[in-house]
């Protein structure tokens, strides 16, 4: 879905975090919303870290954290000149703090992992926490070579036939339209790798393939009228959805998934497919989520 609230990005100054800041700035410009950069100084946990001593420890980290924030602003403006950008340096439990920021965000962006310097543990474990529990859509960005964030590569969306997946499809059409690139809609109708089956098995599945194509068509129905500028390529395969999506991610500029799949259980905030793809995809991954789905 389109981002109407601000884009919030967490950074610790690592390569992954810097890529996340630049990607988030470009994303905010596309959606015409402000960018809010957050640096969290984690509150030390341990005996004696209370009161005045805790304050001194946090104060000692405040200057390098502010330098990271200032550098992030410069990176954002390099990627998106004229973008409205503000920053905040805060302290507290990192995961809890960023989840609170997510409640105010349209989209929250994080790097895949951090270096653990000023804000040890901010990114990496945080990316896993946010994709599971954040109440807005989440993008996980890997460190990139150069500043290529948008080009002619397609947007790829995993379509699983679930109601939850409709949010991912909507987000994918929006991103493809804004980026003026094709959309590849991938539907896998088996959770079992194709390689374990014989050729005879595969050739007997024409009916199942037709049903899968109908499911994919149903999930895409209506969006073509809303986004007539988006060229859609439909891909139906009988294979493990994780492996198929990881392969498509190698040629995509953005991979979009729903938070829970067709076997999703309410309250379990991340499906097995999304979790596997997030660990292995080579491009940024957006987890589509509406607040009423969180």
Automatic annotation (TrEMBL):
Entry superkingdom: Bacteria
UspA domain: residues covered: 4-142, 153-287
InterPro entries: Rossmann-like_a/b/a_fold, Universal_stress_UspA, UspA
Family under the similarity heading: Belongs to the universal stress protein A family.
Protein name, UniProt field: Universal stress protein
